[in-house]
């Protein structure tokens, strides 16, 4: 191994006697340091662990702190009250009107101007059904419900 030093103004890095690869630089006065190695695998494992832990804490507790990220303790919050609030139920479209389809759920239904409440829809549809049923049975002496005629109890014609 050649013994050039920084004092000899040789700026080439020292080479390994076996592989002839540069090991240390004389420019930075790195006395005794043969090689700078970064633990890339350990860094990758640490970062993977930190991201996975943050994701698990978000899924489990969903409690954020600006200083450390997600915290591993549950938030002191009443979810029962939150779910029962009127604006939450309306935003989630779980009101009785939404469940009965009196109000639309999908964006196309909400924007549809022809959408009617369920009671109005059936009231508008009922006369067409009555006409269709009466025409299919013909004109005989039957008394139909909804015609305004009083039918004594127990009598069917």
Question: Please, could you describe this protein's structure?
Answer:
With 157 residues, this protein is mainly α. Among the domains are: 1-37, no CATH class; 40-70; 79-111, no CATH class. It has helices spanning 40-60, 79-84, 86-91, 96-99, 107-111, 118-137, and strands at residues 14-15, 22-24, 64-65, 69-70. Strands 1-2 form a two-stranded antiparallel ribbon. A two-stranded antiparallel sheet has the order 3-4. A hairpin with a 3-residue loop joins strand 3 and strand 4 (69-70). The radius of gyration is 41 Å and the shape is elongated. The N and C termini lie far apart (121 Å). The model has no long low-confidence stretch (mean pLDDT 80).
Features:
157 residues, mainly alpha, two-stranded antiparallel sheet, 6 helices
């Amino acid at each position: 191994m050649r013994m050039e030093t920084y004092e000899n103004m040789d700026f080439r890095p020292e080479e390994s006697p076996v592989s002839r690869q540069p090991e240390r630089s004389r420019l930075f006065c790195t006395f005794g340091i043969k090689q700078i190695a970064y633990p890339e695998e350990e860094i990758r494992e640490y970062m993977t662990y930190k991201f996975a832990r943050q994701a698990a804490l978000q899924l489990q507790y969903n409690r954020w702190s600006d200083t450390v990220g997600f915290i591993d303790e549950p938030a002191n919050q009443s979810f029962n009250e939150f779910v029962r609030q009127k604006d939450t139920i309306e935003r989630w479209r779980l009101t009785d009107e939404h469940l009965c389809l009196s109000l639309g759920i999908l964006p196309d239904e909400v924007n549809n101007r022809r959408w009617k409440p369920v009671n109005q829809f059936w009231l508008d549809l009922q006369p067409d059904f009555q006409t269709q049923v009466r025409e299919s049975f013909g004109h005989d002496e039957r008394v139909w419900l909804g015609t305004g005629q009083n039918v004594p109890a127990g009598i069917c014609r």
